[in-house]
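Format notes (please read before filing issues)

Several people have asked whether sequences and structure tokens are stored in separate files. They are not. Every record keeps both together, in the order shown below: the sequence lines, then the token lines. Line labels are part of the format and must not be stripped during preprocessing.
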Amino acid sequence: MPYSIELDSSEMVVVHLLASMRHAMNRSHSVNNSKIGPQSDHQTDLDGLVAEFAFCKWKNLWPDMSISPRSGGADCVVNGRTVDIKSTRRPDGRLLAVTSKNVKHSDIYVLAIIQDNKVTFPGWAFSDELLDESNLIDLGHGPTYAMSQSRLRPFKT
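Then the structure lines:
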């Protein structure tokens, strides 16, 4: 069963501020954004933070508030496992990962679907499940790992 979390107006202000600061810091340090889609780099940074904050709020974790330059890696740790949260604004969106990812980057990948300040989490996959050659597709931006929502593991209560 998918879970939904809403960020309140104060949380959204923090997310927007951090996204702008991270965007400026990453671009000034030549960190490439490994987005999959036509959205701007800033929108990718913003959506990523909205998804991370919502997940951390749901799981009662402290979100990463740092603005130092970075690329890739896990967004948080849950029960000793590293978690990479992937966001989309498409209700039918798939869990996606770029081909430069490998199973050592994160233990688990989580799909987050964003609609304004509401984030729905339809499911997750272990890294070796998502980062499998059988999941490679081309969405018009080169090879990408992808899993449909129907193939994701559901969250348990």
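For reference, the curators noted about this record: Helices lie at 9-28, 41-59, 127-130. The two ends are 9 Å apart (CA to CA).
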